[in-house]
Specification:
heterodimer; A: 456 residues; alpha+beta; 2 domains; two-stranded antiparallel ribbon; 10 helices; B: 397 residues; Alpha-Beta Plaits; 4-stranded antiparallel β-sheet; 3-stranded antiparallel β-sheet; 7 helices; 52% helix
Chain lengths: 456, 397
């Protein structure tokens, strides 16, 4: 116990208070830095030195600065980001797709109806050339509607294809940056690596937006693989994914071992994009192709069972490719001469008997099991419900992320109010410690002048 | 829980509120609750079916209207024919009266002749480019007047001139009431046609004495030797040109039915089809046919006895009764069309109302939603404005 030790304790207090003020300053400066976790000064009481049974304290020691974080919340945020990335990617694509099937535009459903109406109208005046022209025009509009829908879906696919390439590039770049931080983080061992860890976590969240991940953290850093197990980051090394165009014209994703993992990618923007490109759109194109092909065949068969105005057996109404694939994109009118519509059932020019066979197509099931209108309605339902589901997923993940963000902020966020009040507190500590020093200095003075005339 | 900043929450809530405002505005301006498929996929799918039904109902209404016009034209022609037939019966009845002189009867015969001409003209009623009493052969008149002789436009021809394979030549006979159709096979010549006509004459399809020859001008000549009956010849064979009536060979009062007996049906409801035409074969020709009956009356008046005239008048009455009978389906169809018209306009209302309930929203409801959304949005913004700017630093001096 001495004035000197008091002085040294007070000096340490000044250091501590200064450090805390500096830390507060740092927190306030980084209040809006994404991924920044607030730091608190790690202070502890210096062990007391025992002097003959009396153990006064030895002041405060600053051990360092500690980031306040929750590993569990971090993991939940990463998972939530993956889910949100996927839902948003699917939603934005599907919202564009559903406009193709909107009945207020000249969609397939309304053009099919118009064609059947024109045939019914022809049945009241089978020799009218204007009524026949109207049937051909309606047929042409229907083929155009099929062609347009098919083209629009393929264009979406091609846009998504480009997106896949861009996402893969970004994933590789982020993986590299994350891997580069691993050795630096490993240096701090079991202690929290502070702002380095913040940086790496933020990169991991950005990566989560892009693809589903499986993440393991150890004291040596983080190991990251895609959700199907292909390595991305191991130690200080990152493994790159590659996007290569396959024979189907689509970009396939290969991991560093050369495996095609396109079908196994889940989560994140990449997962959502691939889901829409390879499953959703492909399914829609297939249904469209089937409808176009079966409808055209039905029309062609009905034509063949009657006679045109020249007394010949009816020729094909539509022309389609021989297989189902590509039918919607390729369907076109096979006749352009109104006389070739096979209205007659007995070869005479004014007979309308075969038109009943053409009209019947509307209400008879196609080989797929549904009438043309019901087939189209099913497709509309499917598109609408995929989009509605993506929408609710997107909203749900957004709400859940908002919740998680609140919780994360609660643990790790900087509260400017809190820092401001801390500032007041640390200012007072500093002033108090400075006051102690002033007092000790005065006491030194008194001690020095003890027993001299100046002390009077 | 430590709350560090309200900003993310406020941003989320403002976003939600803006979204609700945008949706309410869209609903009010479009009048629709469902503006894209995802708003209600099931309703959107149901709309596809409902709109297809609406399109069908609209077309049925249009068909009803077209058929009403057409059948009313037919009905009016038939009424006119009935009037003419009734007059013929009364003329014939008075002609059968023993007190009439031969001159009187000649005059009566010529009155009946002019009634026959009227009837033929009514039988050839054309509605929107189609001869409505010709069955399904509506491109040509139902009834044509017959002549004894037809000649080809092309010459010189001979018995060995080849006929175009697949082409058709038709000979209608006014006295037998039947027709012979010859379709040329590959390798057929005019000789083949000649022999076909001979066979038809022997079989009684054409009158005995109907022949096909090459005349002095080198034309193909098809003729009947009965000056009181006649034929109508047509062909599409370019090797012959066309077959035209030789001048001065028309036979008075001789007519041939060129149509067929086909009946077209038209759908005017999901499960309702109606007959759309009355073929002339049902009342103009045949055993109770109007034309043969009137021809019989004309001949009887010109030269017959009271008994002959009496029998001829009975035949005309029988033709009139037959016409009344075959007219009934036409009248029934008109009645059906009228009630279908009413039904269809009701269906249109039902469907429209159903579609409205599937995807529509009332203006009142949409306006009230918009008003609520606007209020809510204003409240969120006001609250945010109040809460955001305050920090402790404002108060620490």
């Amino acid at each position: 116990m001495s004035l000197t030790s008091s002085l040294s304790i007070a000096t340490q207090s000044l250091f501590a208070a200064t450090a805390e003020i500096q830390n507060t300053n740092n927190n306030i400066a980084n209040a809006n830095t994404p991924g920044y976790t607030r730091e608190v000064a790690d202070l502890y009481t210096a062990p007391s030195s025992s002097t003959s049974g009396i153990n006064p304290g030895n002041g405060v020691v600053l051990a360092g600065f500690q980031s306040v974080r929750s590993g569990l919340l971090q993991t939940q945020i990463e998972q939530g980001t993956q889910a949100q990335g996927q839902a948003n990617a699917e939603l934005s694509s599907l919202q564009q797709i559903q406009t193709i099937f909107n009945s207020s535009t000249q969609d397939i459903g309304s053009e099919m109806s118009a064609l059947f109406s024109s045939i019914s109208s022809l049945s009241t005046q089978p020799t009218s050339s204007s009524a026949r022209e109207a049937v051909l025009a309606a047929g042409g509009n229907l083929t155009a509607a099929f062609n347009n829908a098919s083209t629009a879906l393929q264009q979406q696919q091609s846009g998504l294809n480009t997106q896949v390439g861009q996402d893969v590039d970004q994933i590789n770049s982020l993986a590299q940056q994350i891997a580069a931080l691993n050795p630096q983080i490993a240096v701090s061992g079991s202690k929290d690596a502070g702002t380095l860890q913040d940086q790496q976590n933020q990169l991991i969240v950005n990566l989560s937006k892009l693809t589903g991940l499986s993440i393991t953290r150890t004291n040596d850093g983080v190991t990251i693989a895609t959700s199907n197990g292909s390595p991305l980051v191991v130690g200080s090394k990152s493994s790159a994914l590659k996007a290569v165009t396959g024979s189907d014209g689509m970009a396939h994703i290969f991991d560093s071992a050369g495996n095609d993992i396109t079908d196994s990618i889940q989560g994140g923007e990449l997962g959502g994009t691939i889901q829409v490109r390879d499953t959703d759109i492909s399914g829609m194109l297939q249904q469209l192709d089937t409808l176009a092909s079966q409808l055209a065949s039905a029309f062609n068969n009905a034509q063949a069972s009657g006679y045109d105005q020249n007394g010949n057996a009816g020729a094909n109404f539509f022309s389609i490719p021989s297989g189902t694939a590509g039918s919607a994109g390729a369907i076109s009118m096979a006749i352009s001469d109104p006389a070739l519509i096979a209205a007659s059932s007995d070869g005479s020019s004014g007979s309308n008997g075969n038109l009943a066979n053409l009209s019947a197509i509307q209400n008879n099931p196609l080989p797929s099991g549904q009438t043309p209108t019901d087939s189209y309605a099913s497709l509309v339902y499917q598109v609408g419900s995929l989009t509605a589901n993506a929408n609710s997923q997107s909203t749900a993940t957004a709400a859940s992320m908002a919740q998680l963000t609140d919780q994360w902020n609660s643990v790790s966020g900087v509260s400017v109010d809190e820092e401001a009040s801390n500032l007041v507190q640390f200012q007072q500590s500093y002033e108090a410690a400075a006051r102690v020093i002033t007092t000790v200095q005065a006491l030194f003075q008194v001690t020095m002048t003890m027993g001299t005339a100046a002390a009077e | 829980m430590r709350v560090t900043t309200m900003l993310p929450d406020l941003q989320f809530q403002i976003q939600q509120s803006n979204q609700a405002l945008a949706t309410a505005t869209e609903q009010l301006s479009t009048g629709l609750r469902v503006n894209q498929l995802s708003d209600d996929p099931a309703a959107s799918a149901n709309m596809v079916d409902s709109m297809a039904e609406s399109a069908n109902v609209d077309q049925y209404s249009s068909n009803v209207s077209t058929l009403q016009s057409k059948l009313q034209a037919a009905d009016s022609s038939l009424s006119s024919i009935v009037t003419s037939l009734t007059s013929a019966v009364s003329i014939g009845t008075s002609g059968a009266n023993g007190t009439n002189s031969s001159t009187d009867r000649q005059m009566e015969a010529s009155q009946v002749e002019s009634l026959l001409t009227n009837i033929v003209s009514e039988a050839n009623t054309n509605f929107q480019g189609a001869y409505i009493f010709a069955g399904s052969a509506t491109a040509s008149p139902a009834v044509a007047s017959a002549s004894t002789t037809y000649t080809s436009t092309l010459a010189p021809l001979s018995a060995s001139t080849a006929l175009t394979s697949g082409s058709v030549i038709t000979v209608h006979d006014a006295s037998t009431g039947q027709a012979m159709t010859f379709k040329a096979a590959p390798g057929d010549t005019i000789a083949s046609l000649q022999s076909a006509i001979s066979s038809a004459a022997s079989a009684g399809v054409l009158s005995a004495g109907t022949t096909a020859t090459i005349n002095s001008a080198g034309q193909l000549q098809i003729a009947t030797n009965d000056p009181h009956a006649g034929i109508v010849v047509s062909t599409d064979d370019p090797a012959l040109g066309s077959m035209n009536v030789a001048s001065e060979t028309e036979v008075a009062d001789a007519y041939v039915y060129l149509g067929n007996d086909a009946v077209n049906k038209v759908q005017v409801g999901d499960s309702l089809s109606v007959v759309a035409n009355l073929p002339g074969s049902q009342f103009l020709t045949g055993t109770s046919g109007v034309i043969p009956a009137l021809n019989g009356l004309i001949a009887a008046l010109k030269s017959g006895t009271t008994d002959n005239i009496g029998n001829a008048v009975s035949a005309v009455s029988a033709a009139l009764n037959n016409l009344d009978a075959v007219r009934v389906p036409v009248d029934n169809t008109l009645a059906t069309l009228n009630s279908q018209e009413t039904f269809l306009s009701q269906e249109t209302i039902t469907l429209t109302s159903r579609q409205d309930s599937l995807v529509g929203i009332s203006t009142a409801e949409a306006a009230s939603n918009l008003s609520n959304a606007t209020l809510a949005n204003n409240a969120v913004l006001a609250a945010a404005a109040k809460a955001l700017p305050q920090t402790l630093l404002d108060y620490l001096k």
